[in-house]
């Protein structure tokens, strides 16, 4: 059931304190459980700094932030704090491709080589644009060793990917293209538009919608960034996903090539360097917050437009949300489901705790999570958009109990019910 938003947005509510932690912002009374779960994240689940934002029918019903942006200096997480949202970036990049498809400028069923001629080599002659979007092209990693800083050189990366041989026959299976997705889809966007992915996103999406979301962060905004707090695998109770274990024990594997051969990008602290923030990396480089993530998906929850800004046609939404590839993921080694560029709900709760990489939302929803827990998605049936961003990562590639508890609270507030496995339905 959809929520009929109150006409009067409630005033800012008093801070909730737990030690040095404070929660600020606003929350409609119907969604008070979201606020309670957000508070619990800090009190019981190890949250350090975070924000959550929810819209229904285009209107904000939850806009909360709190905690610490920089533990070393105790700098608080404020309304304008942004953070690296990792693979939530893929949602922004995919949206750019669908904007072009909606305008008739990009055929998702056309060969990639129609737009990017150099791509048609070494077994990729018949690769379709949809294969790039649904992670079935077979280029989750490069076998040739990449030099330091390779991910900051767009031309070098796209040239290498164009020359590479796929690791499986394109279209026959799917495997998460965690780091290469942005160069593959982004280069098609660049070839069609004649401008870089980040420039197109700013002109057509973040600028018109007024988003705090950047693919290539301006240097003067660096003071707003809260740096990532990575998982400490030595801490008691931390279980690394099979992907990480495989990469560390079998560096020649696909998982190993993806996580170890990236020009040093995955080295501790490198992803929060100025060079990383400035680069346009459409798979993993986005800088945003919960408000930016929710606002990115708000038009997609409302038929493709919001406040006079139309991103895609209403007819494009079903193409964006329909499952395009599913089953055992050839890279992550757990089942996964993808639409054309977006993740779909995947109930992996039956797996061992270290491999529960899915997220539980109604089938109509589509979006993308980010490594360690961030999440943005749209649910057109509920006319809902959601964003959650944080600085302390969990051990997995997708959301964890912090983000899922917020999602669950939203759907409970809307009167949705859960199946035995935890999936939500109206």
Automatic annotation (TrEMBL):
Query: In its UniProt entry, what is this protein called?
Result: Beta-lactamase family protein
> Which organism was this protein described from?
Lentzea tibetensis
Where is the Beta-lactamase-related domain positioned along the sequence? 38-395
**Residue stretches in coiled coil:** none
Q: InterPro entries under this entry?
A: Beta-lactam-related, Beta-lactam/transpept-like, Beta-lactamase/esterase
**Pfam families this protein is in?**
Beta-lactamase (PF00144)
Outline the segment boundaries, as ranges, of region: Disordered: 1-23
């Amino acid at each position: 059931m959809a929520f009929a938003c109150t006409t009067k947005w409630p005033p800012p509510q008093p801070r909730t304190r737990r030690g040095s932690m404070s929660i600020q912002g606003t929350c409609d009374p119907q969604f008070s459980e979201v606020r309670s779960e957000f508070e619990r994240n800090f009190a019981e689940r190890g949250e350090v700094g975070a924000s959550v934002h929810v819209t229904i029918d285009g209107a904000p019903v939850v806009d909360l932030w709190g905690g610490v942006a920089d533990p070393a200096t105790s700098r608080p997480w404020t309304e304008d704090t942004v953070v690296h949202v990792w693979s939530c970036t893929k949602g922004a990049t995919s949206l750019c491709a669908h904007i072009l498809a909606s305008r008739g400028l990009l055929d998702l069923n056309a060969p990639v080589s129609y737009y990017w001629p150099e791509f048609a080599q070494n077994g990729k002659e018949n690769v379709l644009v949809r294969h790039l979007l649904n992670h079935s092209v077979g280029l989750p990693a490069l076998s040739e060793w990449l030099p330091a800083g390779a991910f900051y050189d767009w031309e070098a990366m796209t040239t290498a990917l164009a020359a590479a041989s796929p690791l499986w026959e394109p279209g026959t299976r799917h495997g998460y293209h965690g780091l290469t997705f942005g160069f593959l889809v982004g280069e098609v966007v660049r070839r069609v538009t004649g401008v870089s992915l980040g420039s197109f996103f700013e002109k057509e999406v973040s600028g018109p919608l007024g988003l705090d979301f950047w693919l290539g962060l301006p240097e003067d905004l660096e003071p707003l960034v809260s740096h990532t707090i990575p998982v400490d695998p030595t801490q008691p109770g931390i279980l690394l996903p099979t992907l990480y274990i495989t990469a560390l024990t079998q560096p020649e594997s696909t998982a190993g090539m993806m996580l170890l051969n990236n020009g040093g990008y995955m080295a501790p602290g490198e992803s929060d360097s100025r060079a990383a923030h400035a680069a346009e990396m459409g798979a993993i480089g986005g800088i945003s917050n919960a408000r930016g993530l929710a606002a990115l998906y708000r038009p997609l929850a409302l038929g493709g437009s919001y406040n006079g800004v139309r991103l895609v046609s209403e007819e494009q939404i079903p193409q964006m949300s329909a499952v395009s590839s599913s089953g055992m993921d050839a890279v992550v080694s757990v089942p996964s489901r993808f639409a054309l560029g977006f993740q779909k709900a995947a109930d992996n709760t039956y797996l061992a705790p270290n491999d529960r990489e899915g997220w539980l939302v109604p089938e109509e929803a589509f979006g993308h999570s980010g490594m360690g827990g961030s999440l943005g998605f749209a649910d057109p049936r509920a006319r809902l958009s959601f964003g959650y961003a944080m600085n302390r990562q969990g051990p997995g590639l997708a959301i964890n109990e912090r983000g899922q508890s917020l999602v669950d609270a939203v759907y409970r507030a809307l009167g949705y019910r859960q199946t035995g496995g935890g999936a939500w339905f109206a």
